Structure formats: C-alpha cells, structure tokens
Amino acid sequence: MTQYKEQLGTTLDRLAETIDVRKGAAPESSYTASLLTGGAQKCAKKFGEESFEFALAAVTGDKQHIAEEAADVLYHFMVLLSASGVSTDKVSKILAHREGMSGHEEKSSRT
Ligand SMILES: N=c1c2ncn([C@@H]3O[C@H](COP(=O)(O)OP(=O)(O)OP(=O)(O)O)[C@@H](O)[C@H]3O)c2ncn1[C@@H]1O[C@H](COP(=O)(O)O)[C@@H](O)[C@H]1O
Predict the structure, then answer these.
(1) Looking at the domain assignment, is residue 61 inside a domain?
(2) CATH number of the domain where residue 13 is located
(3) In whole angstroms, what is the distance from residue 92 CA to residue 108 CA?
(4) Who has greater pLDDT, 110 or 59?
(5) pLDDT at 93
(6) How many angstroms separate the alpha carbon of residue 61 from the centre of ligand 1?
(7) Is the CB of 75 under 6 A from ligand 1?
(8) pLDDT surpassing 70 at residue 32
(9) ipTM exceeding 0.95, yes/no
(10) What are phi and psi of 14, to 5 degrees?
(11) How far is the CA of 43 from the centre of ligand 1 (A)?
C-alpha cells in the first residue's frame, strides 16, 4: 500500500471545493450533483443511511471497513452541509470556540 500522509482537514477543504464546483454539473455526470439537485432532504436521507452504516461497521472491529464507512459519512456530511447553505468555515469557527471547554460546560451554556 502506498504511504499517504495528509491532514484530514486539508482533504476536507479540497473536497468542499470539489462539491462547490459540482453544484453546476449535470446529475448524469456527477454523483454529487445528483444528490444536490435533490436538495437538503435527499442529502439528509443519504447522510442518515451512511451514518447508520458507519455505526454498524464501528462495532464489527474491522478497521478497514470502519475507515471506508467513515469516509462515506464525511463525504455525505460535506454534501449535506453544502445543500444546507452552511460553510465549513462557520462550523470550524464554532469548533474553535469550543476548544478547551468541557462538553458538560458547553451544554449548560446553550440557550
Ligand atoms: N468522496 C466521495 C465519495 N464517497 C462516497 N461516494 C459515493 O457515495 C455513494 C454511496 O454509496 P452507496 O452504495 O450507499 O450509494 P448507492 O446505493 O450506489 O447510491 P444511491 O442510489 O443509494 O444514492 C457511492 O456512489 C460512492 O461512490 C463519493 N462520491 C464522490 N466523492 C468525492 O466527490 C468527488 C466528485 O464526485 P462526482 O460528483 O461523482 O464527480 C469525487 O472525485 C470524490 O472526491
């Protein structure tokens, strides 16, 4: 197997750009476009299915299978985010704001 070293964030940034470009593509030529033309509802359905498959894989213990399902979830997450009109920057900002804050603390600060 070839060595592959890249930050996940870098790969996701590139994927976000690809998804953006695919917005104008023909659904017959692009799987991403076929999801996006169905709107947030279609993308959400697919994301739900892929998340469930990932959860099932996670309890099998097969690391390769888990990693493949995780990649499917991340792809469908990015497509759903795009279909919802929310930028990855917005999510990054929220995560950065939460850094160093306990999950318990963050939950009790929600309005
Ligand atoms: N990372 C991905 C990626 N991960 C998963 N998938 C697709 O997601 C689908 C999920 O698999 P399923 O078996 O659940 O889907 P399916 O049953 O075949 O399809 P449905 O009819 O149920 O929707 C498969 O078609 C996968 O190929 C992806 N499709 C695209 N990308 C990225 O998006 C880029 C653009 O792709 P296109 O838009 O197709 O050009 C690609 O170059 C990749 O970088």
Answers:
(1) yes
(2) 1.10.287.1080
(3) 21
(4) 59
(5) 95
(6) 24
(7) yes
(8) yes
(9) no
(10) -65, -40
(11) 12
Q: Could you tell me if residue 59 is inside a domain?
A: yes
Q: From the CB of residue 38, how many other CB atoms can be counted at a distance below 10 Å?
A: 15
Tell me what the mean pLDDT of segment 11-15 comes to.
96
Q: Is residue 87 lining ligand 1, measured as CB closer than 6 Å?
A: no
**CB of residue 82 inside a 6 A radius of ligand 1:** no
What domain range includes position 37? 8-109
Indicate the number of domains in the chain.
1
Ligand 1 and 53: CB distance under 6 A: no
Q: Give the residue, out of 14, 32, 52, 68, with the most ligand 1 atoms within 8 A of its beta carbon, to mutate for a pocket test.
A: 32
| Residue 21 is assigned to a structural domain of this protein | yes
pLDDT digits 0-9 by tens, 64-99: 999 999 999 999 999 999 999 999 999 999 999 999
Query: Could you count the other beta carbons within 10 Å of the beta carbon of residue 111?
Result: 2
Atom of ligand 1 nearest to the CA of 49: 14
The answer to whether position 2 is within a domain reads no
C-alpha distances in Å from residue 9, one per residue of 6, 13, 56, 81, 88: 8, 6, 25, 15, 10
